[in-house]
Amino acid sequence: MKLNPFILTLSALSSVEAFSPSTLNKRYPLRNAVFAKGRSSCDLVLYAKVGIFFGTSTGNTETVADYIAAEFGDDAEGPIEIDGIVGSVADEFAKYDALIVGTPTWNTGADSERSGTGWDEIYYGEMQDLNIAGKKVGVFGLGDQISYSENYADASGELHDVFEKLGCQMIGYTSQEGYEHENSKAIRGDLFCGLLCDEINQDDLSEERVQNWVKQLKTEGILDGSSESSASPTPTAVIDAEVVATPPAEVIVEDDVISKLEAENAMLRKLLDESKAMDKVLANDVMNGESGYKPYYNPKSLSTMWVSSDGKKCYYTKESRIP
Q1: How far apart are CA 311 and CA 87, in angstroms?
Q2: ω into 29 cis (within 30 of 0)
Q3: Are 141 and 194 in contact, with CB atoms under 8 Å apart?
Q4: What is the pLDDT of residue 57?
Q5: Which of 47, 51, 152, 284 could join 96 in a cystine, given CB atoms 3.0 to 4.6 angstroms apart?
C-alpha cells in the first residue's frame, strides 16, 4: 500500500468528538498526517510526536522510562526497548519528531560501548546511516554514584555524543547539584548531558527528577517538532477517513486588496465618462456631416462601428452596463 501525503485541515475534523482539533493539534503534528489509499476507502494515518527508547539490564532504566512516559501522557509513545528494534532503528525513529533515549552504565572501564545493552550493537553500525539531523533528542541515564563515583553514568555521555554527531538538537541538560559523584563522562561543561538517576542510592528522588525534567523538555520545545527526516514512517494510529468531512472553501479578501479594487474601479469609471463624452462629440459631428464617419450599431454587442466615408478607417464605441 502506497502512502501519499496530503495537507490535513483540522476544521474538517471538528464534527468528530474523539478527534477534535484541539486534541489533534496537541498530540499529533500536521505534517505527519498522511492519507493511505485503499481499494474502497482511504485511512488517515497519524504519528505521535515523541518516542521514548531505552536499554536496560536490571530493569532500573525501564522504571525511569516508565516515569517519563507517564509524565508525557498522550504526547509520547513508549517506552520501547532498544534491543527489540535492532535492525529497524531507522523506521522506528522516523515515526517521531523528537526522541528521548536512555541507558544504564556497565562497562565503566571501556572507552566505548559502555551501556551493556542493545545500544552498543547499533552505535557505530546501524545508527551511522540514520538521517535524523535536526531531530530534538533528550538523554537520560542510570548509574551508581557511590560504588562508581568516578564513572557515574558514563554511558549516558556516549549516548549523547552519538546523537549529537548525527546532527540532532540535544536538549534537557541538568545540574549536578544533589549528587554525590566524583566524576562522570556524562558531564558537558558544568552540566550533565541529560537527566541522571540513581535507583540504587537515590531512588526516592527519581520521580521528582523526572517530573522536573519533563517540564524542562517542554519549555525547550520538545513538543514543537523540528525533524526533517527523509525516512518513510510507519503508521502508529489509523482513523477511517470516511468520517472526515470536506471543509467549505473560504475566500479571504484583505483590506489592501479591496482598496486596490476600489481605486481601479474609480479609474475605469473616469475613463468611461470620458469615452461617453467623446462619443457624444463624434455622434454630433456625424449628424452634422463634419466627421465623415457613418455609425453601424450592433444591439447584441451594444457596440457601434464608425466607418469613414472612404471606407478605409473605422473605430468602435461600446455602451457600458456599469451603473
Answers
A1: 88
A2: no
A3: yes
A4: 87
A5: 51
Could you tell me which residues are beta bridge partners of residue 138?
100, 171
Q: Where in the chain is the domain with CATH 3.40.50.360?
A: 48-234
CATH of domain 48-234: 3.40.50.360
Quick one: cell of 70? 507517564
Q: What is the mean pLDDT of each run of 10 residues along the chain (323 residues)?
A: 37 39 42 40 55 94 97 95 93 96 85 88 92 96 94 95 97 97 96 97 97 97 64 37 44 66 80 70 57 70 70 65 51
